[in-house]
Every structure is written in structure tokens, then in C-alpha cells.
Amino acid sequence: MASSPAAAPEKEASKGGFSQHVEVDPPTPQPETPTKITFRDFWDNKRVLGYCLFIYLLPINFGYELSTVGNLLAVNPFLERFGEVVDGVLLVSAKNQQILNAATTVGLFTSAFTTGLISDIFGRKKTIIFACFLCIAGILTQYFSHTILQFFGGKLLSCFGFGLGHSLGPVYVAELAPVKMRGICLALVNTMIVVGQWLNSLAVYGSSFRTDDLAWRIPIATQIIPPGILLLGLPFLPESPSWLIIKGKPQEAAASFRKFNGSDFDVDTAMATTTAAVVAEKELAKEGSQTSWLQCFRGIDGRRTLIVCMVYISQQFIGVNFIAGYLAYYFKLAGVQNALGVSQAAYAVQLFGNICSWPLIDRVGRRPMIVGGCMVMTCGLLLIGGISTIGTKQALSATVAFMTLWGYLYQMTMGAVAYAVGAETPSATLRQKTYSINIMTATAFSCMVLQIMPYLINTDEANLGGKICFIFFGLSVPMCIYLYFCLPELKGRNYAEIQEMFQAKLQARKFKTYVCQNIEEMEASGVKAIMEA
After folding, report:
1. Which end of the chain, N or C, is surrounded by fewer C-beta atoms within 10 Å?
2. C-alpha distances out from residue 28 to 105, 450, 518, Å
3. What is the pTM of this model?
4. Positive or negative: CA dihedral 68, 69, 71, 72
5. What is the b/e burial string over 292-306, where b = at least 16 CB atoms within 10 angstroms of the residue's CB?
6. Which domains are seen in the chain, by residue range?
7. Half-sphere exposure of 387 (CA within 13 A, CB side)
């Protein structure tokens, strides 16, 4: 049973922002009450949501980047600068597309690994500052590029920069957000990614009427806005409480909770449960090894790492890179008139789908939305692939419509909810490292997909078009099976409860109904650790 704030330790006289004495009542198991989010919750937590959107500014660049290559491949001045004529068609060769895609892959992979090292040493806030400067430098390099290799260098640098923010953002928010709003706060990162994809499509479409290099340089230049805004507001951003607790700074951690959540927030309970989770995790591991990279693959922590990684790998295997990233390019290859304009509607539908996930993530839960979403989209892949075999104009229109619907369902389910699973499943002491491993793994699989995709859809190669969905269908079926049997439900649980359930080695389907017995004791140990610190 998820322990509510009302069941938290009773507070007495406070000193330094949190209570110094706690009386713990005996555990009283009660039926679990589903977490229900209302519009009032949005208003009451507007401060929290505002901070989340601010922290997620760099993920806008991540979404922007995901669509950049696919959209620019539909812009003639870009093709004239970096492309070549093949069989009377002007296009960027599959090899050069691989080079551009490799920049994204290498940048995200290395940044994910580095995020864990930098943020664990210097903190979340300083890492974001470093990320912003790298991102801006890479954008400027791309803007003044004249060759594919120059463009590659700029993309590599900017991807490393916003990759730090993308790897750090969900972890940062997970450590600050209240339990009731945590799912929505983490889903917002995907909202910002979709906003980035849409903004890229709008920028490309808005400048596509130009006939000079500004047709592609303007969309590149607009990427500088999110990191610029983030740099201006960073002085007002609180540091991660979990990181401060791990570093032995409980007073500063309490101040961060209060700054992020407001003066009415129950800082004592948040401090007790967060510290309890940290203490419990340290007791499970040998001194000096509890925060090592290797610990992420051992025992309980290994199970947590595998769950997170498989959720993100499933995104790649169900074909998100094709339907969400290559829309405009595929539409152009398929002969759709005004491909960039049609893609605007598709991205708008995806954004609406993501917004639809907000009230559902904490009402329906993580497991039903991810498992159910994966199964429905797997069936959708089979449908899109089958329609694409017909080859008529009507079939093309139906393919475009179902691809748009598929994008809506993806953003409403797996696209949004994966970030909640990724940030709340790892342990507090290993959260950044586990999430970094997840990003590196997902990036590696994304690289594999992106490197093969040009050869599958280019007209001078396999020219599969929508029939590529058959390939993703074959990959997504085993993902549905794994998620059904192995993905636990963590809705409404605080980190002390999550720690107890994983320690009990429950089957995934038993997480939802499990009644935690040791929460009060763990919270008491957390308060004791605070007082000793």
C-alpha cells in the first residue's frame, strides 16, 4: 500500500527546516487507494510544473534533433548543399545520412555515460550549465557548415550538450517532485521532446519557401533558444535533494525541497522517505561499492536496470524512429503533396496524444499504459505494413492516416510513460548511473535502427516505404511478451516503498497490490540519519 503523507511520521518542533523528533505509529495495512489527479492538483502544483518545464528545456533540443535530419532531407537547398543526383533524383546519399545519424548516436551515447560521472561529482545544476554551453557551441558550428563532415562535427558537439540535459532532466525531477505528481512531472519530458519535434517541423516549413542556404540554416539557428533561456534562469534552480543527502548536506536538501515545491510542502516527510531509501540501499551493498557502475548490474539493482533498459529498447523495436522521426522524408518519397505541411498536422496530433497522457498516467498506471500501448501499436504496425502493399493512391492516404494515428497512440502511452519508469525505478544512490546506462543502451539500439533505415526506405536502395513496418512488427512482438511478464507497477509509491518491494523480489504483477510493512521503520531510520548528519 502506498503510504500517504498523512501516514508519515508525526512532526514536532522543527529546526533547520525539518523535524527533530518523530513518533512512529505501528503499520496499519489498508486497501490501496488509486491516485487520482484533478485539475485542482495542477493548479496547486503549478510551481512544481513550472520548474519541471524549465528543467526540460534541453529535451526540446533533443526532440528538435530527432526530426532535424528527416525534415531537412525534404528541403531542396539542403539537398543542393549536401546531396547529389541519383537516377534523376536529388538526395543525400545513404552513406552521408549514416554520418549525420552517427553524430546523434555518438553524442548521446557519450553524454549519457559522462552525465553520471559529472553529476555525481559536481551536482545536477552545474552539469546543466556545462551542457548549455556545449549545445550552443555545436549549434553555431552547424550553422556555418559547408560540408557533411563540418555538419557532423557541429551535431556531435550539440548532441553531447543537450544529451547531458536529456539524461539528467528526468532524474533531476524524480528527486524533487511530490509522489502524487511524479508521473505527470516525468511525462512532461516527453511533452517537451514532442514540442521540439514540432518546432523543428514548423521552422523547416516556415523557411522552406526560401531558395538559399537560410532555408536550412534558420531551423538550425533556432535551436539556440532553449539553452539560452535555461542559462538565464539557472541561478533560481534548486539542487537535487537526493544528491545533497548522499553528499551529507541535509539542511540544503530540505531547502531544495521547499524551493521546488513551495512553503506548504511537507518537507519532513519527503526528507524522511528519501533519506530512508538512501540508507536502506547503502545497507544492502558493501561500503564503497554501493554507488559503482558495476552495482547497477548486480542483484536487485540489476533487475531495476534491466526493466528500465527494456522499456526504452522497446521504443526502438516498435519503430518510433521511422514513424516519429522520418515522417516528412517518407511522405516526400511516397509522393505526398506538401510533405512538410502534412507533417505539421502529424506532429500536432502527436503533441495532443502526449497531453492526453497527463491525466491517465496516475489514474491508469504505468504498466497498463506501456503494456497495452505496446500491444496496440504492434497490431498497428501490421496494419500499416499491409496497407502499404496495395500501392494505390487511396492506400497511400490510408498509410499516412494510420501513421499519424500510430504516432498519437505512441505519444499517449509508451512515449510519455517510459520516462516515469526510467526515473522512478532505479535506486536513489544509483539513479543517475542507471538512467545513463539506459540512455546508452537505447542510443546503441537507436543507432542500429538509424544506420539501417536509409537503406530500407531510400528509393535507390530497398525502397520498402511503409512495408518497413513488417520488420518492426517482428521486433516488437517479443517486447510485448517481456513487458507483460516483467514490468512492475510503481504508481503512487514513494522511494522507500519501491525499495522494499524490489528487496522482497516480488513478481512484476504483484507490485500493484503489495502492502508494504516496513515503511514506518524505514522512515524512522531516515529521520535518525538526518539527525545524526
Report:
1. C
2. 50, 52, 10
3. 0.75
4. positive
5. eeebbeeebbebbbb
6. 39-532 (1.20.1250.20)
7. 18
